[in-house]
Design goal:
Strand order of the largest sheet: 1-2
Largest sheet: 2 strands, antiparallel
Radius of gyration: 28 Å
Distance between the termini: 26 Å
Number of helices: 6
Number of domains: 2
Number of strands: 4
Order of helices and strands: EHHEHHEHEH
Amino acid sequence: MKVYISNYRDHWIPPIDILRKICVWHVIPTDEEDVNPYDDPYIDRLTDRMEPFCHWLQKVLDRVHPPVRYVKIDPHDTWGMDHTLAHIILPMLKQLKATQHGSGQVDPEDVPEHLRPTDAPGPNNGYTDNTIHERWAWVMDEMIWAFEQKITDDDESEFFDHSGVDKTASLQTQMSQIKMDREGIKAHQERKQNAYRLFGKYYQNLWD
């Protein structure tokens, strides 16, 4: 798999902004209160005439510096698609957590009891409360942890004890001598499954 997505390359320049640069002799002062610099009949008339030029300029700039959206999928990428996607999702989750400027709304029932809000809902239909940031941070941590487990080949190795294995015995005997923490494995798998559920449920919160 090869994925290359460039940063946003929006070349669109509103006609009125171009006219503001050109018609410097006809600019409304902006240092006075209650003055809208875009409220100018003279500029409004020219804006309509500039519209075709701006569309032509947009096409030229897109041709010179086009946006890049390149995704190449190889057949082996879907042999273990969950594992392949984890290598892309994990670093994105980590970057989002490091650079985010807000918190997504998380239902109280999806987090441990000590992270559930204790104050009354905020003025915006309950979108702000005393644990909103802690809940989202917990969800992010769970998702990051789960995808880290996905790309680790031996993420359940801690639940197997090989200390009592007789390496001189037959393979079948060695296998029977391995001690397995079944309860630990079950809890581990349930935690991963819950994190993947949270990823799907709050997928639309993954933005900065």
